[in-house]
Every structure is written in structure tokens, then in C-alpha cells.
Specification:
There is one protein chain. The protein is an alpha+beta fold and 350 residues long. The chain has three domains: 119 residues, PAS domain (Beta-Lactamase); 75 residues; 149 residues, 2-Layer Sandwich (Heat Shock Protein 90). It has eight helices and twelve strands. The relative contact order is 0.07. About 2% of the residues have low confidence.
């Protein structure tokens, strides 16, 4: 029995692969006549398989495949001067929705060195593109709504801060006035947080900018003489998630307020320093001053609202609090690392 030539066997194998492919495929001659089409191609584009072999690509269906640019690229691919990589086309058919297609084409060796064959692969990305557009629209809509919310929050915080300051001026009780001032400072710190979050990108907050603006706000509202008291910020290039930045900002606010109120009762000059640095997932935040230091024993103030806030926020960040003498002054450090540490007392803050 005479054996079929190897080239015929390879051609038959190629046809079988094309026809049975789950992806829309066309097997073409050099002059763009269809040798075979996959069943998935016929099904996807509503073409009778019996009408395909021997017809030119431009004659398929009702002529919707007569695309001059595609024909030109296929010709260049056949000549070897180019190839089609992820070329997008719109397939327009009468009484049907336009489909967005991505096509790829390569020369294909079917065993016959005397002729050139092309394999054209088609992917329908209409639904994917529509979903992407919908997602983009939703993202833009969300951004607009978020911007509006942030604007209203900023206005509300300014109103609250103004009301608190007006109330502080009217009350006769020094204790009540002090509480109102404390509330005002905390509202202003929240406003600084909100402002920084509104300008952050990709959900990350740059801590150097954030802490600097926060301390400028605190200094403007609490330091009457800038030559007497000052706040310095030293932060590396760390950027953290928004929720982490909120907790860190509130900790800094409470500790700075505490230092401004208690550390420099009689000093002619004083300085508060905020330092933050990180390495991987580990970070250290310290707030120190060169004031009188923390009173001990019977002279130590009772723990107040500020103490509870700092302790709660540190626990939320899985950090430990360390209190030490700065010689002169006080240093409070909050560390976050993989190792578990027992939390020590934080100095009392109102």
C-alpha cells in the first residue's frame, strides 16, 4: 500500500486542528482564500460552514469581512514584511451590534515549502471593553462623589472649629474653656487628616507632608510665640495606607498637644520633635521635647482623655509605647514590629 506524502499528512493534521479549535480561527492561502474555518468561528459570527471553503475572506458572511486595512496587513504578513499582533477592528453587520475584535496572524508551515499559509486568530473583546468602560465610568463617578463628600466634610469641620472657639471665648469657667480649646485642637487635627487624605493618591498618604502640615496646623492654633516654641518634623519617605495615617496623625496630635501644654511652663524656649522611620513592615514613631520632663510620683498628673486616645490607637496599630527621659525633656516612642512587646504606661495627657 502506497504511503501518503508527509506534506499531505501535515496539511490534514493542520486542518483538523483548525476546525476543532475552541477559538475562532481561519486558515488562509496567501491570496486570502479560506482553506478551513474553526467551528467556533462559524458559530460566533453566524456563518454556514459549508459556504466557507474556497471563498475569499472579504466574501464571508454578507461582506462584513471586507476590511481593507486587515487585508493589507494580511498581505504584508504573507510577504514576511510584517505580522499582525493584537490588531483591533470593528466588525459591523446589518441589524446586529458592532463587535470589537482583536486579531492576530502568522505564517503557518503546513508541510509544503512551496506555498505560504496564514493562520488568523480572532478574539471578541466587545463585552470586556464594555465592562472596562462601565468600570471607568463608576470610578469617575465615585471620585466625583468622594470629592463632594470631602468638600462638605471640610466645611463641616471648619464650622465646628469656629463654634468651639466662639464658645471658648464666651464661657467664664477656665476649666470649660480649656476643654473647648482641647476639642478645637482635635477638630483641627482631624481637618488636617481629611485635607491630606483628599490629596493622596492610590490610597497612600505621604507621612512627611502629612506630619508637616499637621504640626503647622497645631503650631498655628496653639503657639502664640513662634520664636519661643517650635515643632520640627523628621520623616523618611514612608507612605502608609489611609487608615494607618489617621491613627498615626491622631497620636501625633495628642502627644504634641500634651507637650505644648505641660513641657514648657517657665522655659524661655522649647522644641518638640516628631520623628518617623520605617524598614519593611517595621516602623518607629517618636515625639520628644526638651522641656521639664515628666513629673513622677505624687506630682504626676492623672491620666486623661489624651492618654486613652494614644493607648487605644497604639493598640489598634499593634504598637508598643515606650516612655524615656530625653535629658532634658521627655521622649515617647511607639514601635511596630513582628515581635510582641508588653505595653508600658503612657504619660498623662488631658
Amino acid at each position: 500500500m502506497k504511503q501518503e506524502p508527509t506534506a499531505h499528512l501535515e496539511a490534514a493534521s493542520t486542518l483538523a486542528v483548525v476546525v476543532s479549535s475552541n477559538e475562532p480561527l481561519l486558515f488562509l492561502t496567501m491570496d486570502q482564500k479560506v482553506i478551513a474555518a474553526s467551528t467556533s468561528f462559524c458559530r460566533a459570527f453566524g456563518i454556514d460552514p459549508a459556504t466557507i471553503p474556497g471563498r475569499r475572506l472579504s466574501d464571508l458572511g454578507k461582506g462584513e469581512w471586507a476590511l481593507p486595512r486587515l487585508a493589507s496587513l494580511l498581505k504584508a504578513t504573507a510577504s514576511g514584511s510584517a505580522q499582525i499582533d493584537a490588531y483591533e477592528i470593528d466588525l459591523e453587520r446589518p441589524d446586529q451590534m458592532t463587535r470589537r475584535l482583536v486579531v492576530n496572524a502568522r505564517q503557518l508551515d503546513d508541510g509544503d515549502k512551496e506555498r505560504i499559509r496564514l493562520l488568523l486568530a480572532i478574539t471578541d473583546v466587545t463585552d470586556i471593553r464594555a465592562e472596562a468602560r462601565l468600570k471607568d465610568d463608576l470610578v469617575r463617578e465615585k471620585a466625583i462623589l468622594l470629592q463632594e463628600v470631602q468638600h462638605r466634610v471640610a466645611n463641616s469641620l471648619q464650622i465646628i472649629a469656629s463654634v468651639l472657639m466662639q464658645s471658648a471665648r464666651r464661657v467664664q469657667s477656665e476649666e470649660a474653656r480649656g476643654h473647648l480649646h482641647n476639642a478645637h485642637h482635635r477638630v483641627m487635627s482631624i481637618a488636617a487628616v481629611q485635607k491630606q487624605l483628599s490629596t493622596s493618591k492610590a490610597g497612600k498618604v505621604d507621612l512627611s507632608t502629612y506630619f508637616t502640615q499637621l504640626c503647622e496646623s497645631l503650631g498655628a492654633s496653639m503657639i502664640a510665640d513662634g520664636e519661643r516654641l517650635s515643632i520640627a518634623v523628621t520623616v523618611d519617605d514612608s507612605a502608609v495606607d489611609a487608615d494607618v495615617s489617621i491613627s498615626l496623625g491622631l497620636i501625633v496630635t495628642e502627644l504634641v498637644i500634651n507637650s505644648l501644654k505641660h513641657a514648657f511652663p517657665d522655659q524661655s524656649k522649647g522644641r518638640i520633635t516628631i520623628d518617623y522611620h520605617s524598614s519593611g513592615k517595621d516602623w518607629t514613631l517618636s515625639v520628644s521635647d526638651d522641656g521639664i520632663g515628666m513629673p513622677r510620683g505624687a506630682d504626676a498628673p492623672k491620666a486623661g482623655l489624651g492618654t486613652g486616645i494614644v493607648e487605644a490607637l497604639a493598640r489598634n496599630l499593634e504598637g508598643t509605647i515606650e516612655l524615656s527621659d530625653a535629658n532634658p525633656g521627655t521622649n515617647i516612642t511607639i514601635r511596630h514590629s513582628g515581635a510582641a512587646h508588653r505595653q508600658t504606661d503612657v504619660p498623662a495627657a488631658e
